[in-house]
Design goal:
The radius of gyration is 16 Å and the shape is globular. With 180 residues, it is of the alpha/beta class. Helices cover 53% and strands 12% of the residues. The structure holds shikimate-3-phosphate. The site of shikimate-3-phosphate has 10 residues, from loops.
C-alpha cells in the first residue's frame, strides 16, 4: 500500500533510536524533524516525568493524541513518536494518515544499555527496571508490528546507516525518482 502523505513516522520502544535516527533522516532529506514527546513538553510547559507524576499517564496520552492530530495537515516531516504511541487505536489511524510508518527495533540488552542511566522515562522508574522493560517490550511488540509498514532492527547499526536504510525504504514507498 503506498503511503498517503510524504512524512516518515518512527515508532518503537524507548531506546530504539527514534529521535537520533529521525534527526539524521530529516537532515539528509531536507525534511523538518518533529518529536511528539518534545511537543507535549512544550505544550504542557512541563517535563514528561513531572506530567506523569502530577496529571497521570492518561493525561499524557490525551496530549500525545492531540499532538498527532495537530500534525496531520503537514508534509515533509520526520516524526519521532513516544514509545507508548501505539497504545491507542486512534493513534494508529492518525499515523497511517500522516505517511510511512517505520518501526525501529533493537535487542532487549541494547535497549536496556541505552535507557538504563536515563531517569527521564517515568515508566522505567521501578524497583526492577530490567523486568519492567522486558514485560513492556513483550506486551508492546505486537502493537508496533501492527502499526508499522516496515521494520528496521537497529541493534548493530550505526545511526547513519540506519538513517540511510529508512531513506531507501521511503524512496520505494513514495516512489521517489532520482536523487532525493
Ligand atoms: C513512553 C516513552 C517515552 C515517553 C514517555 C512514555 C512509553 O518516549 O513518551 O516516557 O510509554 O514507552 P521515548 O520512546 O521517546 O523514550
Amino acid at each position: 500500500m503506498p503511503a498517503s502523505r510524504q512524512n516518515i513516522v518512527l515508532v518503537g520502544f524507548m531506546g530504539t533510536g527514534k529521535s537520533s535516527i529521525g534527526r539524521l533522516i530529516a537532515g539528509r532529506l531536507g525534511f523538518v524533524f518533529v518529536d511528539t514527546d518534545a511537543l507535549v513538553v512544550e505544550r504542557a510547559g512541563r517535563e514528561i516525568a513531572e506530567l506523569f507524576a502530577t496529571e497521570g499517564e492518561e493525561h499524557f496520552r490525551e496530549m500525545e493524541t492531540a499532538v498527532l492530530e495537530s500534525l496531520t495537515h503537514l508534509e515533509r516531516r520526520v516524526i519521532a513518536t513516544g514509545g507508548g504511541i501505539v497504545l491507542r487505536e486512534r493513534n494508529l489511524e492518525l499515523m497511517r494518515e500522516l505517511g510511512l510508518v517505520v518501526r525501529l527495533t533493537a535487542s532487549e540488552d541494547v535497549i536496556y544499555e541505552r535507557v538504563a542511566r536515563n531517569t527521564k522515562r517515568p515508566l522505567l522508574q521501578t524497583e526492577n527496571p530490567r523486568a519492567t522493560l522486558s514485560a513492556l517490550l513483550a506486551a508492546r511488540e505486537p502493537m508496533y508490528a501492527a502499526a508499522a509498514q516496515w521494520t528496521l532492527d537497529t541493534t548493530t547499526m550505526a545511526h547513519g546507516a540506519a538513517a540511510e536504510a529508512v531513506i531507501a525504504e521511503a524512496r520505494r514507498a513514495f516512489a521517489w525518482q532520482g536523487t532525493k
